[in-house]
Amino acid sequence: MGFGRPTASRRIGAAADALAARGIVAWEAGDAHEALNALNQHPSIGLLFTDVNMPGEMSGIDLARRVNKVRPDIELIITSGATIIADDDLPDRGTFLGSPTQWIGWCRLS
To answer: 69 exposed, middle or buried (CB, 10 Å; 0-12, 13-18, 19+)?
Structure first.
């Protein structure tokens, strides 16, 4: 077993596991374009959970802003272990959590 910071795939897996334990189905997307496609194909999706730093050309905050314009019904949770986003920079219905670990802990407690 290794020590140190968990890889992104392990953090995503842990977040998906925490959501699944609460009866929430999580869809994983490799980048913002995959996330937008999933949202278009599955109108029942009601929450976007994204990291600020995403692979590809669009950041997680840009993804959240775009989703807010086309699907204002979706709750938005933006996270980052490396960046802090001020409330004024968040789109409507956006919540910022400082790290995926905070989100996982929040899921377990709420």
So the answer is: exposed
pLDDT at 96: 86
For the record, the structure tokens of 1 come out as 């077993």
pLDDT reported for residue 62: 94
Q: What is the mean pLDDT of residues 18-29?
A: 78
Alpha-carbon dihedral angle through residues 39, 31, 24, 21, given to the nearest 10 degrees: 170
CATH class given for the domain over 8-109: alpha beta
Burial 1-37 (b: 16+ CB within 10 A, else e): eeeeeeeeeebbebbbebbeeeeeeeeebeebeebbe
Residue 60 confidence (pLDDT) above 60 = yes
Tokens 């795939």: give the residue.
Answer: 9
User: Tell me, what's the pLDDT at 24?
Assistant: 77
Residues in the chain: 110
Q: Residue 62 burial by CB count (10 A; 0-12/13-18/19+): exposed, middle or buried?
A: middle
Domain residue ranges in the chain: 8-109
